[in-house]
Amino acid sequence: MSDKPWGGVFSEATDRRVEKFTESVSFDRRLYAHDIRCSAAHAQMLAKVGLITDDECHQIVQALDDVRQQIEQGHFAFSVELEDVHMHIERALVDRLGDVGRKLHTARSRNDQVSTDLRLWVRDAIDQIDAALAAVQRAWVVRSAGDREVILAGYTHLRRAQPVLAPHYWLAYCEKFQRDRERLADCRRRTNVLSLGTAALAGTTLPIDRQEVADRLQFDGLAGNSLDASSDRDFIIEFAFVLALVAEHLSAWAEEWILWSTTEFDFLRLPQAFCTGSSIMPQKINPDVLELIRGKTARVIGNLTRLLVLVKGLPLAYNRDLQEDKEPLFDSFDTVLACLELAAPLIEQAQLNRTAIAARLEEGFLDATTLMEYLIRRGRPQRTAHDLVGNLVRAASERGVPLAQLSLEELRQCDPDLDESVYQVLGTQNAVAAFVSFGSTAPAEVDKQLERWRQKLGIPGNDQIEPAETAQDKLGL
Ligand code: ARG
């Protein structure tokens, strides 16, 4: 009984089955470094306001560091009897320091302690995901420089639509991941608020200095309402949402590249180091990494759902349900970080099959919309131009040729106003070159985009970037 920090009021020992059921140390031990940091700052504040002496504070900080080393060296014994990481570390302190160790929990509850540990942990996790997202963005930018001249078919409804430059495609993903990074920064702002000092739920009658703790732990502000702070898990849910959206973006990309690397499309060759084979069909080279990136999105969405349902209908303030927040949080972080760390090299190393792409560029009338806009520039109302080009596409389809191979006579049968200049916008190459609008696939606009991303991500200019192939050769891949 006396093993538990709540010994006094209890006259019965905890049932073993209850210990097993209620423990969280099997997963929350990964908060140990943040818990120790949080405790050291708390002790320093207690000394500053005179609730413990400087010497006691010194002993506590030293002993905490000793516990940290013991955990890191793998010599620390965790057991379900001590429930969670917070109780383990406090017990280790009491074992070392006796009554001095028993003072650390002054003006503190595990409710504000676990919340603070989590805020510190999420803050670090956000920074790691942000760095991994930046690495993926850099991979897209490097690819874009290498694929600058390649024209791809752009799709809507997965039907060939209009031509786009390959870097335009790649930089579209840079934008999505940039918005994810902005969402992370926003979530970090709300995460980086100190909850310690709200104690169990109502605050404390002891003369603590919360700002001192906030400064030591580099929090930007203090949670303003103790009831709210001890129940608030919004920051975890927000982070889990951003992770789910990152996973969605990765999943959409993975699906696209799985498709593009099929025999049917044949646009892309995936590096073999990122594929696996079949145990029965000797010829198979399967895109398993991309498939798992797509598949793991399910668990990240599941984790977000779990968290949302977890807090639904919880009365103020702390409820033990909240212990269930950690596993989905950790799992979403681990999963998305692993996906991002594989995405970056895969993006850099995959090779476009330029010959196969070029061979089919004149299929699908990618220049039809450009031709329509050419007619609009010559004074046709849009609806009329749309109809005229529709007729031309029908005529060309019947003959089995692209628009550019229709003779001027054939073109004039649909629109007598046409002259030789129409050939300047026909054909996929011409069609791409004809774009002009801001943010479009116009070559000059794509160059501007590329330059903007280079500056944002601190990547050297075109001439200084090694083409993807050379970088790969160097790595011996
Ligand atoms: N292991 C608990 C959790 O993660 C720590 C807080 C426990 N607080 C309490 N009043 N039982 O939520």
Radius of gyration over alpha carbons?
30 Å
Largest sheet: 2 strands, antiparallel
Domain count, please report it.
Answer: 3
What is the subunit arrangement here?
single chain
Residues in helix, %: 55-70%
| Main β-sheet, spatial strand arrangement | 1-2
Number of E-type strands: 8
Q: What sequence of helices (H) and strands (E) makes up the elements?
A: HHHHHHEEHEHEHHEEEHHEHHHHHHH
User: What is the C-level CATH assignment of the largest domain?
Assistant: Mainly Alpha
Q: Strand share of the residues? A: 5-15%
What is the mean predicted local confidence, pLDDT?
A: 95
Bound molecules: arginine
Tags for this entry?
477 residues, mainly alpha, Fumarase C, Chain B, domain 1, Fumarase C, Chain A, domain 2, Ribonucleotide Reductase Protein R1, domain 1, 3 domains, two-stranded antiparallel ribbon, two-stranded parallel ribbon, 19 helices, 59% helix, disordered C terminus, binds arginine
Fold and architecture overview:
This protein has 477 residues and is mainly alpha-helical. It has 3 domains: 7-106, Fumarase C, Chain B, domain 1 (Orthogonal Bundle), CATH 1.10.275.10; 111-148 and 166-201 and 220-359, Fumarase/aspartase (Central domain) (Fumarase C, Chain A, domain 2); 368-475, Fumarase/aspartase (C-terminal domain) (Ribonucleotide Reductase Protein R1, domain 1, Orthogonal Bundle). Helix content is 59%, strand content 5%. The chain contains 19 helices and 8 strands. The strands form 4 sheets. It has a two-stranded antiparallel ribbon. Strand 3, helix 8 and strand 4 form a beta-alpha-beta unit. The two termini are 61 Å apart. The model is unreliable at 465-477 (pLDDT under 50). The site of arginine has 10 residues, from helix 6.
